[in-house]
Amino acid sequence: MSKSKELFSEAKKYIPGGVNSPARAFKAVDNDPLFIERAKGSFIYDADGKEYIDYVGSWGPMILGHNHPAVVEGLQQQLLKGSSFGAPTKLETTLAEMVVAGVSSVDKVRMVNSGTEATMSALRLARGYTGRTKIIKMEGCYHGHGDSLLVEAGSGITTLGIAGSAGVPAKLAEETIVVAYNDISALEEVFKEYSQEIAAVILEPVTGNMGVVTPNAGYLESLRNLTKEYGALLIFDEVMTGFRLAYGGAQELYNIEPDLTTFGKIIGGGLPVGAYGGKEKIMDYIAPEGPVYQAGTLSGNPLAMVAGINTLKLLKEEDTYDNLEEKGQLLEDGILKNIKKVDVHAVFSRLGSMFTLFFNSSEVTDYQSAKSSNTKAFSIYFNKMLEEGIYLPPSQFEANFISLSHGKDEIQTTIEANYKALLEVKK
Ligand code: PLP
Question: Quick one: fold of 3-67+319-426?
Fold first, then answer.
């Protein structure tokens, strides 16, 4: 028995399902999770000492690659000064200033501890600010596990084949209206019906949690116009896309200014962080300035701030996003060639350093088309890739991430493994 399997059966005795987040279980790919011991650059090492090229990147944060010296050194220095004070530090202002400078729609930002906290708090703020209660979310978008947002969510919810979650009060779920991603006429209908009741529309501007799906031309513009027309706030959940697709996130790429933005993952450089920000007049509704309460014992934690600051400093360098695009294109070219050569039903969806290989015969544009993918084929593909030393997210409905540490050699190795895995699918 492998060490990972041993560790997994031990973990299951004490932790529900043996994991602290369901997406980590390999249920959808008929396997058991690898237990990881260490990671460096684009490589991750399991408890049996096997090396893998990593495309999970801790589900998004590790854009520099694992254990980047700049992040590690910063953390070591900060540890000697203390790990948490429960009082303000200059580090919080530094990171906030960097986010404000990098994202043009954000005047002020509040740090929290996870993406879930960021979206939950942004919704409360939107409701407090507008005095309205209903929220519109898009089918297949995942915004963490807050009650209002666990309705038709993607990611682990889709992987496990459940519509939402037990324990979410029906009364609360009723306040969430779900509309298909990329469908403006459905959104218009909802706005007509509920006109003055909608507090906010929240979405992943480019989705990662049903796999990578990009907005149709004009979709985000129409969303911006509709929310303005009806006095609802537009919230971009950039927990995944922020500082990933561009330094200023998807909103920079598509040139759209949302009212509020949520962040996480990259801005914590691998430590637990989330944040939400937006226009000053809205953000000043938050306590202690305003009436919307939100707090946190470890919020703005100095270690997390240092990891975030040092990560953003490096990302700010000139060729970051060209570099990621170049690697993404290299991988895309190789995989598209393989798909053609092997002749399998698969489409490669990519934007910059985020990608998903859908086992589908047509383009994926929304949740329904994502769900029509062949998950059995994905499972075969995933397990063969793992055997070949490539560590992918264990679900069809997830984004893969390329980091600045992935070299052209690793991309080439991945393309070769992809060819073998596609052959296995074709069998
Ligand atoms: N929003 C998006 C777009 C996400 O991808 C995630 C997590 O994957 C979250 C929110 C929740 O973040 P966290 O897992 O840090 O709570």
Answer: Aspartate Aminotransferase, domain 1 (3.90.1150)
